[in-house]
Automatic annotation (TrEMBL):
<keyword id="KW-0472">Membrane</keyword>
<keyword id="KW-0677">Repeat</keyword>
<dbReference type="Pfam" id="PF07645">
    <property type="entry name" value="EGF_CA"/>
</dbReference>
<dbReference type="InterPro" id="IPR018097">
    <property type="entry name" value="EGF_Ca-bd_CS"/>
</dbReference>
<dbReference type="GO" id="GO:0016020">
    <property type="term" value="C:membrane"/>
</dbReference>
<protein>
    <recommendedName>
        <fullName>EGF-like domain-containing protein</fullName>
    </recommendedName>
</protein>
<keyword id="KW-0732">Signal</keyword>
<keyword id="KW-0812">Transmembrane</keyword>
<dbReference type="InterPro" id="IPR000152">
    <property type="entry name" value="EGF-type_Asp/Asn_hydroxyl_site"/>
</dbReference>
<feature type="domain" description="EGF-like">
    <location>
        <begin position="246"/>
        <end position="288"/>
    </location>
</feature>
<dbReference type="Pfam" id="PF13947">
    <property type="entry name" value="GUB_WAK_bind"/>
</dbReference>
<feature type="disulfide bond">
    <location>
        <begin position="254"/>
        <end position="271"/>
    </location>
</feature>
<keyword id="KW-0245">EGF-like domain</keyword>
<dbReference type="InterPro" id="IPR000742">
    <property type="entry name" value="EGF"/>
</dbReference>
<dbReference type="InterPro" id="IPR049883">
    <property type="entry name" value="NOTCH1_EGF-like"/>
</dbReference>
<dbReference type="GO" id="GO:0030247">
    <property type="term" value="F:polysaccharide binding"/>
</dbReference>
<dbReference type="InterPro" id="IPR025287">
    <property type="entry name" value="WAK_GUB"/>
</dbReference>
């Protein structure tokens, strides 16, 4: 009985050691003592839920605990956050604007968006409008001042093609670079009278390119009014370049084993862990070395893998040739005699 207890105790100690090792090697996400999650959304620093947890007010995330699961919102707005990346991107949910008709009245709701510190990623989002009697306009003045739009017409729903947004039932247009606001407006040539009751509404929204596929069924009824779509926003640290930020040592956001990257879509910069490291580059010791030997098993079966800071080394046994890597020349005997074996030694591959 005592031997069984000893065995169980030993297994528990091994399990505890594994748990502690994994926990210790897991890179931090938020600042110590700060909330790192709201519902399904992970909140990495420089974002945070208030006080000293976020780098500035711009990066405040409000966690609304009245929802189950909890929902994250940008600052004190009604913009729901669904994902935050330390690579300088943030995903939010946007509402659909609509303009609806019947024989006696018109009912519409046009949404607008304005965030001077964040820009809409012009490569990942588009403006889309659907309807058989639809004029759609999107414009803004924060960041880039712009106005664009598209037209969508069809005589009958049977004329449209699912998956196509070429102007027959559905149209799309690009979003300019460095756009930080939008106002959507919709209008109709004949108040949808020629397509009632099948298509009573026009709809328009800004959304990620791959988040919507047009379907003729979307033209029917009023259900599309409640649809929400994801938008990818770009964020950055301050309005300075990496060269300028590097000179301000006290306020430079990039920590150990990270590099500074100038933002492509607007002024400012963000930080990335160096190759071979993973974690949060905005936290002290946030970027931690990846053990490639465990995560990738990159070495040939006869080679020894040695983890090094930011990289790894494969070493062949004495008397063998090659770089020891699975993706390289591996390890082989010069005389092709695979039956011989030698003790392993550490050598550069």
């Amino acid at each position: 009985m005592s031997s069984i207890r000893s065995l169980v105790l030993m297994q528990l100690m091994i399990l505890l050691n594994v748990i502690l090792t994994v926990k210790a090697s897991t890179p931090a996400v938020a600042k110590p003592g700060c909330r790192s999650r709201c519902g399904d959304v992970i909140i990495p620093y420089p974002f945070g839920t208030g006080g000293d947890c976020n780098i500035t007010e711009q990066f405040l995330i409000t966690c609304n605990t009245s929802y189950i699961p909890n929902k994250a919102f940008l600052r004190n707005s009604n913009l729901e956050v669904i994902n935050i990346s330390t690579d300088g991107q943030l995903r939010i949910l946007s509402n659909t604007s609509y303009d609806c008709y019947n024989t006696s009245y018109r009912n519409g709701l046009f949404y607008n968006f304005r965030l001077s510190e964040f820009s809409i990623n012009n490569n990942k989002n588009k403006f889309t409008a659907i309807g058989c009697d639809t004029y759609a306009l999107v414009q803004g003045s924060y960041g880039q001042r712009y106005a664009t739009g598209c037209l969508s017409f069809c005589n009958n729903i049977t004329d449209v093609s699912n998956g196509s947004c070429s102007g027959i039932g559905c149209c799309q247009t690009s979003i300019p670079k460095d756009v930080r606001s939008y106002n959507i407006s919709l209008d109709s040539y004949a108040n949808h009278t020629n397509v009632l009751p099948e298509n009573p509404c026009s709809y328009a929204f800004v959304a990620e390119i791959d988040s919507y596929t047009f379907s003729a069924s979307d033209l029917l009824g009023f259900e599309f009014q409640s649809r929400q779509f994801p938008i990818t926003l770009d964020w950055n640290i301050r309005n300075t370049s990496c060269n300028e930020a590097n000179m301000d040592v006290n306020n430079f956001a990039c920590k150990e084993y990270s590099k500074c990257v100038d933002s492509e879509n607007n002024s400012g910069y963000f930080c990335k862990c160096l190759e071979g490291y993973v974690g949060n580059p905005y936290l002290p010791n946030g970027c931690q070395d990846i053990n490639e030997c465990e995560s990738m098993s990159p070495c040939n079966g006869t080679a020894r893998c040695t983890n090094l800071p930011g990289t790894y080394n494969c070493s062949c046994p004495v008397g063998y040739e090659g770089d020891g890597k699975k993706s390289g020349t591996g390890c082989s005997l010069p005389n092709k005699d695979q039956s011989k074996t030698s003790p392993l030694t550490v050598a550069l591959g």
